[in-house]
Amino acid sequence: GEDVEQSLFLSVREGDSSVINCTYTDSSSTYLYWYKQEPGAGLQLLTYIFSNMDMKQDQRLTVLLNKKDKHLSLRIADTQTGDSAIYFCAESGSGGYNKLIFGAGTRLAVHP
Amino acid sequence: EAGVAQSPRYKIIEKRQSVAFWCNPISGHATLYWYQQILGQGPKLLIQFQNNGVVDDSQLPKDRFSAERLKGVDSTLKIQPAKLEDSAVYLCASNQDGSTDTQYFGPGTRLTVL
């Protein structure tokens, strides 16, 4: 079946790099996504990676994909207090209609 | 460009009551999704519409949940009767054609069932 696992909590110091990890099960996923959710808000797409890529960089964000191990990571460089939020990893499930399977989310806390 | 709109933002009801949520997707988006997000969990897809047709409702508890998108634009999700375990945030999302296109999420409706 389809499943996405994430660690639940990460605490980092302001200015350090944050690395949030995710494992997934569906090897047929075409895209893998990272969403950010701030308190009381909906989900905001941060970035995504196509399954035939190993890495994608977008400003402070770097996504690494290890398709063999079904492991995805999100690195945030120079983490700021405004990055404090819950980060969700999601895979596009099997089937043709882009059903997203989400992990439980990693709560990132940034402290001074 | 206006985002996905949802209302109400918050709703408190007692168990066995009925409740309805409304979603207006981004203009021109053919595909609309309803997700349920229970506290501490990731969103789970309840139902997906392509225009006004249902393409996936495999995880919708059909004995109490119903959804419609009659004109292929806005949508309502109803729960009748509500149970305590229905307390969650109900998120609506849309995208242009339901393929690998990005899904855009609304702010959600937080439902509390007492």
Structure summary:
Chain A is an all-beta fold. Chain A is built from no helices and 11 strands. Chain A is globular and about 40 Å long.
Model description:
The complex is a heterodimer of chains A (112) and B (114). Helices cover 0% and strands 56% of the residues of chain A. By secondary structure, chain A is mainly β. In chain A, strand 9 and strand 10 form a beta hairpin. The mean pLDDT of chain A is 90. In chain B, strands 2, 4, 5, 6, 9, 10 and 11 form a seven-stranded mixed β-sheet that branches. In chain B, a hairpin with a 6-residue loop joins strand 7 (65-68) and strand 8 (75-79). Chain B is globular, with a radius of gyration of 13 Å. Chain B has 114 residues and is mostly beta strands. Chain B has no helices and eleven strands. Chain B has strands at 5-7, 10-13, 19-24, 31-37, 44-50, 53-56, 65-68, 75-79, 88-95, 104-105, 109-113.
Q: Would you identify the regions of chain A where 5 or more consecutive residues have pLDDT less than 50?
A: none
Q: Give the SSE string of chain B.
A: EEEEEEEEEEE
Gap between N and C termini of chain A, in Å?
41 Å
Shape verdict of chain B: globular
| Tally of contiguous helical segments of chain A | 0
Q: Tell me about the largest β-sheet of chain B.
A: 7 strands, mixed
Our estimate of the beta-strand percent of chain A is: over 45%
